[in-house]
Structures are given as C-alpha cells and as structure tokens.
Amino acid sequence: MTAVVSDLRVPIVHLHIGGEARTSGSGGVHQHVYPATGEVQGPVPLAGPDDVDAAVRAAHAAYPQWRALRPAERARVLRRLGELMERDTAEIARLSVLDNGMSAAMSQPLVGIMANWTSYYAGWADKVEGRVTSFPANQRELAYSMPEPYGVVGIILTWNGPVVSVGMKLIPALAAGNTVVMKPSELTPYATEHLMGLVKEAGIPDGVVNLVLGGPQTGDALVRHPLVQKVSFTGGPATARKILAACAESLKPAVLELGGKSANVLFPDADLDTAVAVNTFSVLGTLAGQGCAIPSRMIVHNDIYDDVVERVLAIVGGMHCGDPFDPASVISPVVTREAQQRILAMIERAQADGAKLLTGGRAPSHLTNGFFVEPTVLGDVDPNSELGQIEVFGPVLSLMRFQTEEQAIEMANSTDYGLASYVYTKDIDRIQRMVSALQAGGVYVNGATPVTGCELAFGGIGISGYGREGGEEGLFEFLRTKAVGIGGNWA
Ligand code: NAD
C-alpha cells in the first residue's frame, strides 16, 4: 500500500453542478483552516440558493437517463468508481488529513472502508427485486411490488468522516437509481473534490452526482428544494430537528444518522487486554474522539475498576499528540478552535460535577497553534451529570462503576442517545441478556465494531436518529415500493 506523504498542498475547490466545475458560488467564500497548524489553506466557494437550485435541476435532468441505465451497467460504473478509490487511496487519505486534521494512520483505513462500501453497493445495483404476491381469490389479478428510486436525493454530510459517509450514502443512493446533490461541510472540501474527479473518470454521466459546499443556509436550501424527494443527513440532533421541521412542510422523508454517547460495559470476566485497548484507542485515537459511535462511557464492574484505570492510563501514557502526518501521532487535533474551547470547558465542568481527572484535561503546551486537546480520562463520572449524558465529540473518556448487571444496564440506557452499545464478557447467557436489554441501534460484543462491515445495518434510536445505512436496509432507504395489480380476463 502506498504511504500517505506529508504534503500540505491543497487542490482548487469547486462546486460541481451538472458536470461543470465552478470556482465561485453566490454564497461567498470560506477560508479553510488546517486544524493542525491553525493556518489558512485556501478559499472554499460556498453555494447560495441559486447554485443549489441549479444543482438540483441538473440532478433532476440527469435522472431519467440514470434510471433507465441497465442495472448491470450501473453496477459496472460503480465498481469502477470503487477501483479508482482504491487506486487513489494515498491521495484521498492525504486530502482527508488536510480536511479536518485526522491522523494519516486513521485516514488510510477510512478510504479503504469507503471503497469496500462502494464495491458492496455496486453489487446491489443489479439485484433490486420486488415480490409477486399470492393471487387474489378470483385468480384474475397479478399483484406484485416494485421498488423504485425516489428521483433526486439530497445528501448532507458532516465534517468528521465525509469519505466514509460517501460510501454509506452516495453509493447506495446511486445503486438504487437515484441522482444526487451532495453537500459536504465547508470545513472538509478536499477529499470530496478529488472524488468528484473519480466520479467523472468512472463514467458516471454529468448531473448524476452534483456537489455544493456550504453551511446551514446551503443545507437548508437543499432540504427545502421541491425537486428533492428524500434527504439523507449525518450530523447532530439539533440540526436534525431543523431539517425535520423543513421536511415537514412537504412531508419529505429523511434518514438521520446523528450522534451518540455509547456505553461499553466491562464485566469481571472480560478479556481486559482487548477491551481496554480497543475502548481507549477508539475513544481517544479515532479522530480525536470525534466519532459518532465511539464507546465514550466505559462502565466498569467494581471488582476490575482499579485494574482498568491502571491499564487505561498506561495506554494513554504512550499516546502522542502531534503532526497528523507523523506515523507516531495518535491524537490528532479537533476540527476548530471553537470545538477545542468547548471541549476544554466541558472537562472543567465535569470536574466541578465531581468527576476525577485522571489524565489530560488541557491543550498541550507545545502545540498552541493547532487545535489539540490532550487525551483526557475522567473517573467516577456521575452518569446523570453533563459528561455522563451529553456527547463531547473530543478525546475524552469517561469511566463509571457498577456492581450488578441491572445497574450496568440502567446506566448504559440512561441517555437519550441510542447509537451503539458495547459489552465485554465471556458468559454467553449474559451476552444474550445484554443484547436484548441494551437500547441502541446496534450492540457489539467482545471487540466487534460498527461500520467497518458494510453488510450490517448501522443507525440509531432515540436522538441518535432513524433509518439505516449498510446492508439491504441501507439500500432500501433509497427505494420506495410501488404496488402493482394487473387485472385481466385470463379464464
Ligand atoms: P451539524 O449538525 O452542525 O452539521 C452537519 C451538517 O449539516 C453540515 O454539513 C452542516 O453544514 C449542515 N447543516 C447545518 N445546519 C443545517 C440546516 N439548518 N439545514 C441543513 N443542513 C444544515 O453537525 P456537526 O457538528 O458538523 O457534526 C457533529 C455531529 O454529527 C455529532 O453529533 C456526531 O455524532 C454526528 N455524526 C453522526 C454520525 C452517524 O453516522 N451517526 C457520523 C458522524 C457524525
């Protein structure tokens, strides 16, 4: 595999509308800042409502041709797109680092995940099938269901993992026969800019995939556009409420992939070598804690609590904050200065609420230009405190204690979120009880993780959202079923 090189050059960013690459938009310009250094990297054109309108109309115009394409041909170009993603892994991974400061060690596997999801959903493009139902009593009606694409789908991405979201949203929408207007965050324009070149190279016709960059106003214009038939959104619950309010006007359907406050319950018989390493790395080392499904609440049995604390601190002691291109860097910066200040303030308030700061809690003194937060661990966190209830989206791990299985379940289920829950135990009966009792879109046991496998549906309950990505369920989010009855005189 080609290594990701440290190279801070960025591409010129465009709005991609109907096959045309525009260097300016009517929404103004955002100056992109590299989170690792705080330096401005270049301008990002922002789409105004008229640009969004042009993009949606381009997608609408391209829809009949894309829908009419033979499914096997749709599968072929999507497979080709997946191959091009693999070919350009090192470059897409480099641009992902420049987008949001994630470590190169993380960005390369994320491109691999996108390519896997792309090849998986390419395989679905020619396998969309309906169902012939039993004949009505008079034997004179043929009744069947026919899944159909929606038309134009509006896709809104957030900044923490646009590349993975491309695989999870764009590709199944295309495989199902829809055309798309995609709006990444203006904070992450580079990797998706490169991907638009690959979309063209793969032979996907102009107008099938359009891209507009921008913030809330751009997203709102996309959601409200009357030709957009469905919205697929990744982001926070507060924005999701605004999107649903906008969708309510025309009763437009939406898929919502929102945040999480996921619990990891460690029983005394857990394989602690695996449990502690996986949990600590995924909370602190995954995009500096800016991951939606990370187990940010480690709920630990009293008998092993001290042992777990010791193991966590030993791992964190070896975690290095620094240049995301340095393979030794595990902790990358968070996305903006505002995010850094918000996270540090939350750590302060957690201590005022009684949590014990075990390590970290500050901005590292040798990296003041970038937006870094030391890997932070807080012990004896009150499950009902702000830190016990609210997503941090930063490198902060909370530890809590329990004595009985019932207490652990109650703690794990005590937030309004419900994206993922994790359990470590060797007791199969306990696993079955926990899988059934934990209120979340997914339960992952003994080291299993979400999203890496595209075959399994991923998504939330509660304020973690609804709808699914992955598997057949993720494809059918972009299809609606038409019922067909054909009468006749066949006697
Ligand atoms: P956000 O909700 O502020 O923004 C997400 C996207 O929505 C951005 O592209 C933004 O420009 C756009 N947007 C903002 N206001 C809008 C509006 N009124 N109408 C339409 N679009 C609008 O989220 P964020 O702070 O950028 O991202 C962090 C959140 O995303 C966290 O809660 C995180 O857990 C969640 N997330 C969830 C998943 C998942 O798959 N479940 C994955 C990654 C991130």
TrEMBL record:
Pfam families: Aldedh (PF00171). Its EC number is 1.2.1.79. Gene3D superfamilies: Aldehyde Dehydrogenase, Chain A, domain 1 (3.40.605.10), Aldehyde Dehydrogenase, Chain A, domain 2 (3.40.309.10). It is an enzyme of class 1 (oxidoreductase). Keywords: Oxidoreductase. The keyword Oxidoreductase applies. The keyword Oxidoreductase applies. InterPro entries: Ald_DH/histidinol_DH, Ald_DH_C, Ald_DH_CS_GLU, Ald_DH_N, Aldehyde_DH_dom. It catalyses: succinate semialdehyde + NADP(+) + H2O = succinate + NADPH + 2 H(+). PANTHER family: ALDEHYDE DEHYDROGENASE-RELATED. Belongs to the aldehyde dehydrogenase family. This is Putative succinate-semialdehyde dehydrogenase [NADP(+)] 2. It comes from Mycobacterium conspicuum. The lineage of its organism: Bacteria, Bacillati, Actinomycetota, Actinomycetes, Mycobacteriales.
